[in-house]
């Protein structure tokens, strides 16, 4: 088991590394909720991205990990990312009879921007969220 690692790099940036087990997706949601209580969409988004990391990359292999990073930008927008351990570059397309394949459409609808950097050896999926006026 990987020890819980969490750090607050500054007043507006946090990151934590999670083991690559499915139950850690819930822990990632709690981490985001603790730091972004006025951003309910952030919890949903990190759930989708962490689930993808665990199910579709080497993060889900024995000993795998993923890291969640949250940064509040000076303009109040939020930058959030999930770093995984790489894997295939193509995933299945959604079909009427397939349960999965729609999560990144949801991510796209809830964010200002999102993208992917890295390659099959390690990938980071990032999102930008609007400022919370709460």
Automatic annotation (TrEMBL):
This is ATP-binding protein. GO terms for molecular function: ATP binding. InterPro entries: Anti-sigma-factor_SerPK, HATPase_C_sf, HATPase_dom. It comes from Microtetraspora malaysiensis. Residues 41-127 form the Histidine kinase/HSP90-like ATPase domain. Keywords: ATP-binding, Kinase, Nucleotide-binding, Serine/threonine-protein kinase, Transferase.
């Amino acid at each position: 088991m990987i020890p819980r690692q969490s750090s607050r790099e500054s007043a507006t940036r946090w990151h934590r590394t999670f083991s690559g087990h499915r139950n850690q997706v819930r822990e990632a949601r709690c981490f985001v909720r603790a730091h972004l209580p006025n951003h309910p969409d952030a919890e949903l988004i990190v759930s989708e991205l962490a689930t993808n990391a665990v199910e579709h990359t080497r993060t889900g292999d024995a000993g795998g990990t993923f890291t969640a990073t949250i940064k509040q930008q000076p303009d109040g927008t939020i930058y959030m990312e999930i770093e995984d351990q790489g894997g295939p570059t193509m995933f299945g397309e959604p079909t009427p009879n397939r349960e999965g394949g729609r999560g990144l459409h949801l991510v796209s609808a809830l964010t200002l921007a999102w993208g992917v950097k890295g390659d099959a050896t390690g990938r980071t999926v990032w999102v930008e969220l609007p400022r919370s006026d709460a």
